[in-house]
Amino acid sequence: MDSPDRPALAFRRATEADHARVVGVIADWWGLPGTESLWRLLPRLFFQHFANTSTIVDGADGALAGFLIGFRSQSAPEVAYIHFVGVRPDLRRSGLARTLYERFFEEMRASGCRRVDAITGPGNRRSQEFHAAMGFTATGDTTIDGVRAWRDYDGPGEHRVAFSRPL
Amino acid sequence: MDSPDRPALAFRRATEADHARVVGVIADWWGLPGTESLWRLLPRLFFQHFANTSTIVDGADGALAGFLIGFRSQSAPEVAYIHFVGVRPDLRRSGLARTLYERFFEEMRASGCRRVDAITGPGNRRSQEFHAAMGFTATGDTTIDGVRAWRDYDGPGEHRVAFSRPL
């Protein structure tokens, strides 16, 4: 991972102590309208109970460089789910999100998962393009903001594009 | 469960189709200030991935009577976590919440869990009294609204009382 383009990054498991740190960067890293309260989708429970399938990336400077919060489904154990992924804006296009996904795919495949799911908001074009490039198929039941999405997927007004990819 | 005081209730596992139904009752069932958007803590993923440890209770009239959304921790497998529990207001004090908890305790104990955790808001006295009656110990690092709670537990301004109980 060490290269002139990408200073040394350290990948490790998430801990509960990372919760506040991750929550603290989300609005800044996303920087899209309406994402000021996006951190609410990431309560502490993910860092308590899915730490062993979630990854934190520390930069050489000690600052948070990226994270992936994901888990294996308990009621559909062939399915893995990526809940939240973030990369520090100055590290975008460095391949870090791809590396986080590929590491997660590998772990989940080794656990016996055959599919990985994720969701995003209809307005998050960057996420939609990334998931398409990573081999995910997007689904929806209607068109919202010009993209196929599931209306009220996560509750009233909470439309989502759903992604699936075989493992 | 059939008695003059409590019409027949049917306990079953949660399904993804229950998500919209549960989300739709939360503001009405809670009815506390600031709980209008409490349903946002219950995204669809809980009904997709933790359906096999979550319970829906249907009333004799077909209407939702209660629910418990919980799971076994993946990174701390000796810990079970109750994320969200609701009982229809006209069924309160009938023992339904207690029954939901006791069924969950039994299942989690059989899975190998030794402890069950839950959280609530500092303002939710009803929940605090219920957890005390169910044998939970409450913790916090400060006093908020007159109760011990953890400041910013789930993010900025999201203080929580944490409960723990041996299984």
Put the structure in a nutshell.
Chain A has 167 residues and is α+β, with helices and mostly antiparallel strands. Chain A has four helices and nine strands.
3D structure, described in words:
The structure is a homodimer of 167-residue chains. Chain A is of the alpha+beta class. In chain A, 26% of the residues lie in helices and 28% in strands. Chain A is built from four helices and nine strands. In chain A, the strands form two sheets. The first copy, chain A, has a seven-stranded mixed β-sheet with strand order 1-2-3-4-5-9-6, with helices on both faces. Chain A has a two-stranded antiparallel sheet with strand order 7-8. The A-B interface holds A 20, 23, 39-45, 48-53, 71-76, 79, 81, 83, 152-156, 158 and B 20, 23, 39-45, 48-53, 71-76, 79, 81, 83, 152-156, 158.
List the helices and strands and how they pair.
2 copies of one chain form a homodimer.
Chain A: E1 10-13, H1 18-30, H2 45-49, E2 55-58, E3 64-72, E4 79-87, H3 96-111, E5 115-120, H4 125-133, E6 137-139, E7 142-144, E8 147-149, E9 161-166
Parallel strand pairs in A: 4-5
Antiparallel strand pairs in A: 1-2, 2-3, 3-4, 5-9, 6-9, 7-8
